[in-house]
Write a structure and sequence with these properties.
Layout (H helix, E strand, L loop, with lengths): L1 E8 L4 E10 L6 E12 L1 H18 L4 E6 L2 H7 L11 H11 L4 E6 L6 H15 L26 H5 L6 E7 L4 H4 L13 H15 L7 E4 L3 H14 L3 E3 L16 H7 L1 H9 L11 H19 L3 E6 L1 H12 L5 H4 L7 E6 L5 E8 L5
Parallel strand pairs: 1-4, 4-5, 6-9, 7-8, 7-9
Antiparallel strand pairs: 1-2, 2-3, 6-10, 10-11
Length: about 375
C-alpha cells in the first residue's frame, strides 16, 4: 500500500491540521482518508501527525509492505535515518512512527513534490478550515474559492456553509449487499432468502475493507434482517470490530406475487397494475408493498439512528429501495429518483443528516473498491 501524508500550520506555530491517504499500490484506488485539526502547533508537528494517521490506517487495512510519500523533506529524511531529530517536540512523534513502522514487513520513505501530494494537502487544509469554522480553502479575509494553507487549490465549499445547516451531522455509509443468483438473473428479489454467491462474498470483503478505512473501530453496523444483507454486514462488522445490529425497517420491498420474476415477466402477468406501480408510489405490488410504505419505514430507521448516534457515523447495509429512500431523503426529492438512480451490488453511498433538518449527499454508487 501507499501512504500519502501532509500537514500544515497557518502561522507556524498557528492553527494546524493534517491529512493522510492510503492507496492500493497497483490500482491507485483510495482505500482510506484521515484528517484532523490539531489546534495551534507547528508545520513539522502537523506533518508527523499526518504520517502517524496514515500508518495507523494502513495497519488497520492489513498492509504488509508500505511506501510513504510526503513533500516534507524533514520527515522523510528523519524517518529514513539520514537526519537526526534534534527538536524535542518531534522526538516522541518520530518514536511513535517508528513503532508503527516496525509492524510492517517492509516500509520505505519517498519525498515527492507538493504538487504530487495534493490529495493529502487538500485534506489537511479542509481540516484546518473546519477547525476555524470556515468553508474549505477560505482563510479570514479571503473570498470563497481563494486558496489557503500550503497549496493553491479550488475547493467546493462545505455543504453546511452554503445551505445554512447547523450542528454536527450524522453520517450514514450506505452499502448494498453483494451478488446473489437472483441479482445475476435480474429478478425481483424482495423478502425471499437467497445467499450471496462466491462473487458476492468477495464483494462483501472488498466493501468491508473500503468502509474500514473510512470509519473508526466500533462504528455501528446496522443491517436488513435478510441473509444476503447480513452476510455483507458480517464482513464489515469484522473489519470495523463491531457487532451487527438488525433493523427490520431496512428490509427490501415486498414484491409479493412478483417475487423471483423478471421485469418482463411481472409486466406480462399484471400489465395494468405493473404500469400503475411504476407510476404511483402509493400502489402496492400484488400481495406486496408500495414504495411509499417502504419510504415510511426507512424514515423511521433513519430517525432512530440520528437520535441514537447524532453527530456520529453508522454503516447501513441494505437493498436497492431502502438505500434509494435514504438518498431521496438526503436530496429532498420525489419518488422519480427510485427509477432514475442505479445502485450496483456492493456499492457505497454516503449521506449526512444535520440536526436542523438539512442533509448532504456526499457519495453515490461508488464501486471503486471492486476494481
Amino acid at each position: 500500500m501507499v501512504v500519502e501524508a501532509d500537514g500544515g500550520s497557518r502561522g507556524n506555530p498557528g492553527p494546524a491540521g493534517y491529512g493522510a491517504v492510503v492507496r492500493d499500490a497497483e490500482s491507485g484506488d483510495v482505500l482510506a482518508e484521515r484528517s484532523e485539526g490539531l489546534g495551534v502547533t507547528t508545520n513539522n508537528v502537523a506533518e508527523y501527525s499526518g504520517l502517524l494517521a496514515g500508518l495507523r490506517a494502513a495497519g488497520r487495512l492489513g498492509a504488509s509492505d508500505v511506501t510513504v510519500r510526503m513533500d516534507s523533506k524533514l520527515v522523510v529524511e528523519q524517518m529514513s535515518g539520514r537526519w537526526k531529530i534534534k527538536h524535542a517536540a518531534l522526538q516522541p512523534l518520530a518514536a511513535q512512527a517508528r513503532e508503527l513502522a516496525d509492524r510492517f514487513t517492509t516500509i520505505r520513505y519517498e519525498w515527492i513534490p507538493r504538487a504530487r501530494n495534493s490529495h493529502a494537502d487538500r485534506l489537511a487544509n479542509e481540516a484546518m478550515d473546519a477547525q476555524a469554522g470556515m468553508p474549505p480553502g477560505q482563510a479570514p479575509g479571503q473570498a470563497p474559492g481563494q486558496a489557503s494553507g500550503k497549496a493553491e487549490r479550488a475547493d467546493t465549499p462545505a455543504p453546511a456553509r452554503w445551505s445554512g445547516a447547523t450542528g454536527t451531522p450524522t453520517r450514514l455509509l450506505l452499502v448494498r449487499h453483494g451478488q446473489t443468483e437472483l441479482s445475476v438473473e435480474r429478478r425481483y428479489s424482495g423478502r425471499g432468502e437467497v445467499p450471496l454467491t462466491e462473487v458476492g462474498e468477495r464483494q462483501a470483503k472488498a466493501v468491508a475493507g473500503r468502509v474500514a478505512g473510512m470509519v473508526e473501530a466500533g462504528t455501528a453496523v446496522v443491517s436488513s434482517p435478510l441473509g444476503r444483507a447480513r452476510q455483507t454486514a458480517a464482513a464489515i462488522a469484522e473489519a470495523v470490530a463491531s457487532p451487527v445490529e438488525v433493523a427490520d425497517g431496512l428490509v427490501e420491498t415486498d414484491f409479493g406475487a412478483w417475487e423471483r420474476l423478471t421485469f418482463a415477466q411481472a409486466a406480462a402477468r399484471d400489465p395494468q397494475l405493473h404500469g400503475r406501480w411504476l407510476a404511483d408510489p402509493s400502489v402496492p405490488a400484488p400481495d406486496g408493498e408500495s414504495f411509499d410504505a417502504v419510504h415510511r419505514r426507512v424514515r423511521r430507521v433513519r430517525d432512530d439512528l440520528v437520535a441514537r448516534i447524532g453527530g456520529g457515523s453508522a454503516v447501513v447495509v441494505s437493498h436497492v429501495t431502502p438505500i434509494k429512500s435514504l438518498l431521496r431523503m438526503g436530496l429532498d426529492v420525489g419518488p422519480s429518483l427510485l427509477f432514475r438512480l442505479h445502485l450496483d451490488l456492493a456499492s457505497l453511498s454516503i449521506v449526512e443528516f444535520y440536526p436542523d433538518g438539512h442533509a448532504s449527499v456526499r457519495l453515490v454508487n461508488d464501486t471503486s473498491h471492486l476494481a
